[in-house]
Design brief:
By secondary structure, the chain is an alpha/beta fold. It has two domains: 111 residues, Rossmann fold (3-Layer(aba) Sandwich), CATH 3.40.50.1000; 64 residues. It is built from eight helices and seven strands, in the order ββααααβαβαβαβαβ. The strands form two sheets. The protein has a five-stranded parallel β-sheet, with helices on one face. β4, α6 and β5 form a beta-alpha-beta unit. α1 crosses α4 and α3 crosses α4. The chain is globular and about 55 Å long.
Length: 184
C-alpha cells in the first residue's frame, strides 16, 4: 500500500522569513513603500500576496502585481539568507523507501524551484505542487487533495508537515495526520 508525505516549503522545509522579507522590501521600495520586518513576520509571512499587499499599497492593483512579480525575481538574490530544516530533510530521506514525497506550497513555482535548486533538493520530491498549480490557497485543502489524487492515496495513509495555521487547518479538514513544525 502506497503512503504519502506532504510537506510545506516556507517555514517548514526552510526558514525563508528573511528571503521573502528582503525581496518584498526591495520591490516595495521601488514603488515608494516601506516594509517593517516585525510587521512582515507577524502579518505577511506565509500568507498569499493578495491578502497582505493591498493594505500596504492602498489597494492599487497595478502596484500589487508589480511588487509580486518583482519579488519573485528578487527572491533568488536573497537565498543565502534561507535556513534549511536539516532534521526534516533527514526524515524525508529516511521515508523515501516507504512514502512518496510531495511538496505542497503556496509559493510560486519560480521561487519554489529557485530555492530547491539552490540547495540541490529538487530531486527529493516525487511531486511538486505550487500556487501556480492550484486555484485555492490554504486553508483550502486543494493542494493536498491534488497530491492525494495524483498518487491515489487515502488521507489516512498520508502525513503532512506544516508550520502555519492555515496549512494545518487544510490538512486536518481532509483527515491527514499532521506534524507541526515550530522552529527550524
Amino acid at each position: 500500500m502506497m503512503k504519502l508525505a506532504m510537506i510545506d516549503l516556507d517555514g517548514t522545509l526552510f526558514d525563508t522569513n528573511e528571503v521573502n522579507y528582503y525581496a518584498y522590501k526591495e520591490a516595495l521600495q521601488e514603488k515608494g513603500f516601506d516594509l517593517d520586518y516585525l510587521f512582515y513576520k507577524e502579518e505577511c509571512n506565509g500568507r498569499h500576496y493578495k491578502v497582505f499587499l493591498p493594505d500596504l499599497v492602498n489597494n492599487d492593483e497595478e502596484i500589487i502585481e508589480y511588487v509580486h512579480n518583482r519579488k519573485k525575481n528578487l527572491y533568488k538574490k536573497y537565498l543565502d539568507k534561507a535556513i534549511p530544516n536539516s532534521h526534516l530533510f533527514n526524515i524525508l530521506e529516511s521515508l523515501k523507501d516507504t512514502y512518496k514525497i510531495a511538496l505542497v506550497t503556496t509559493a510560486s513555482k519560480k521561487n519554489t524551484y529557485d530555492i530547491l535548486d539552490y540547495f540541490q533538493k529538487t530531486e527529493l520530491f516525487d511531486l511538486i505542487l505550487t500556487h501556480d498549480d492550484i486555484k485555492n490557497s490554504k486553508p483550502n485543502p486543494e493542494g493536498f487533495l491534488k497530491a492525494l489524487h495524483y498518487f491515489q492515496v487515502k488521507p489516512s495513509d498520508a502525513l503532512v508537515f506544516e508550520d502555519s495555521k492555515v496549512g494545518i487547518e487544510a490538512a486536518l479538514k481532509i483527515g491527514c495526520s499532521v506534524f507541526k513544525i515550530e522552529k527550524i
